[in-house]
Design goal:
Arc Repressor Mutant, subunit A, mainly alpha, 4 helices, two-stranded antiparallel sheet
């Protein structure tokens, strides 16, 4: 997978195949503290026909969410969704 060409949708990459699209899809599964494995299990169990992602794309999506401060990683390594009042 070429990361640069798959970051945003374009005429060759559908929204569901872009990392930005996948990040939005992954974000909907983060409701409380969860581990990477737990979150991945939720996504695998979803069986979504539009978003067919592999673990590498999932990790890139988590990176994007972390960079844009939609999620945080606590001291135990759990993923937490950031709410508006938590942003400094």
């Amino acid at each position: 997978m070429k990361t640069l060409t798959n970051l945003i949708p374009n005429k060759h990459v559908r929204f569901a195949g872009s990392i930005i699209g996948i990040a939005g899809y992954v974000r909907q599964f983060i409701d409380c503290k969860s581990s990477v494995d737990g979150l991945w299990a939720k996504i695998e169990a979803d069986n979504n026909e539009i978003f067919k992602i592999d673990f590498t794309q999932f990790m890139y999506a988590l990176d994007v969410l972390l960079i844009i401060q939609e999620i945080m990683i606590d001291e135990d390594g759990a993923i937490i969704k950031v709410t508006n009042n938590e942003i400094n």
